[in-house]
Amino acid sequence: MFNKDFRFGIGVASYQVEGAYNLDGKVPSIWDVFTHTKGRIVDSSNGDVCLDFYHRYKEDIDIAKDLGIQDFRLSLSWCRIINENQSINIKGIAFYRNVLSYIKECGMRPVVTLFHWDMPEYLDEKGGWENRDIIKYYGTYVQAVADNLSDLIDTYLTFNEPQCFIGMGLRGVEHAPLRKASIEGLLAASHHVLISHALAYQILKKKNPNCEVGFVNTCTPMIPEDKKDKDLYKACSDELFRVDDLEEDFTSFPLFTDPLYLGDYPSNVKKRYASLLKEIIKPGDMELLQKAKQKQVYLNIYTGHQCRLVNGHLASLYDSKIEDQTSFEWLKVQPEALYYGPKYVYERYHLPIVISENGEPFDDKLVAGRVEDSYRSKFINLYLAQLDKAYQEGTPITGYYYWSLLDNFEWAYGYTKRFGLIYIDYRNNLKRIKKNSFYTYQKIIKDTTKK
Question: Is residue 120 reached through a cis peptide bond, with omega within 30 degrees of 0 on the bond before it?
């Protein structure tokens, strides 16, 4: 499976693991405010203590080291690093220096996400991503990271899944800040994120010309039912890069990936929203974005849709088997998503691919001190087999990060969904317990790296 240079990893995100929500000068995030509002979270929980990674990071990094991974993906909290007056919070910097140093001490590479959804609340009150001033504020944050942490980081991911924090959070769907922006506001927010990325690229490359600056998008690829039908394959690939009515669906993949990797918005977006984009896009914006040359495509893929052609039109099949179900209704076990998704993306953008998130939630049970999650072990094997198939057939895939190392705070679903390789006993001092799937992934990594 793969070759010895292939990089395995895991991922965690600041708000989902850290806790310490009001310690050492951290300012409130939109998720602090959101979770403290009654009725927003399924189990009425919040991230105030969370997994207490803030105090237990060495324990968790030691666990990751035991797994044998090469890359430890984590996010920084903007709210810990920059004070409301735009000065630097020294205690926040010190925390992340300690975390990043320990990851490196344990022989792993930190892969650092700069924004994983926890925007400072005071900035959201100014309009958040809809307000062009956010580019300046984000630049201040990135500059602080570059000046104080760049000696410990060589791979940055500027943003994680705008399809979620814009496509859901700014459409009033489930995520903070849970407000419904206008189509103009949504387009502005998307553009400001892309230009913020381009600005971050300039700042980080100036500090370290050899660093990598990437951007994480998420997609759900269509899977052809008939593997030999070339027309069906093309229809499935085309569907991933199709943008129709943004007013109805703002979780578009190419809205972000085409500007990042092709240097411009999809043609039908430019045509349909020409008057709005004329007001939003300022002179020099697209040139700045085009200078932010990407080295790899970072993809989060969890599931896919089986499809067939009906009267010349693509139709999704939702008759999944019961054994394909996870604890999320929308998230079916579809291993071929990791075969077809990377193929479609490589054929369009011609860049190597890293699977930066992939995982499944199940209703794990702790019995006699053990978690026998054979279903997750099966999932990992099936998905990685399909990814390896794409790799062996010539799709350049350089890494795979399982999501997540730990059971954690799953946004609007609180602690009701478990993605981790490590079981968190929420009733017993947040005790960490390795699931059977931990050893499955550990063996795959060991067998690959010893080649």
Answer: no
DSSP symbols for 322-388: GGG--SSTT----TTHHHHHHHHHHHHH---EEEEE---------BTTB---HHHHHHHHHHHHHHH
Q: Phi first, then psi: give them for residue 378, nearest 5 degrees.
A: -65, -45
Give the closest residue to 401 by CA, choosing from 193, 152, 216, 149: 216
Sign of CA dihedral 223, 240, 361, 449: positive
Domains of the chain: total:
1
Phi, psi (deg, nearest 5) at residue 212: -100, 135
Look up residue 88 and give its DSSP letter.
B
| Sequence-ordered alpha helix ranges (H) in 10-50 | 14-17, 30-35
Q: Known catalytic residue: 357?
A: yes
Question: Does 1 fall in a domain?
Answer: no
Predicted pLDDT at 320 = 65
The Cα–Cα gap between 108 and 100 comes to: 10
Q: Provide block-wise average pLDDT over 10 residues at a time, the chain (451 residues).
A: 93 98 98 97 98 98 98 98 98 98 98 98 98 98 98 98 96 96 96 98 98 98 96 97 80 95 95 95 98 98 95 82 86 96 98 98 97 97 98 98 98 98 98 98 94 67
Chain Cα centroid distance, residue 259: 18
Q: Out of 161, 336, 360, 410, pick the active-site residue.
A: 161
* Residue-number span of the structural domain to which 131 is assigned: 7-449
325 assigned to some structural domain: yes
Report phi then psi at 297, rounded to 5: -100, 125
Q: Is 426 part of a structural domain of the chain?
A: yes
Between CA 345 and CA 326 the distance in angstroms is: 26
CATH assignment at residue 59: 3.20.20.80
The pLDDT assigned to 234 comes to 97
Residue 311, exposed/middle/buried by CB under 10 A (0-12, 13-18, 19+)? Answer: exposed
Q: Which of 130, 357, 360, 410 is catalytic?
A: 357
Secondary structure letter of residue 120 according to DSSP: B
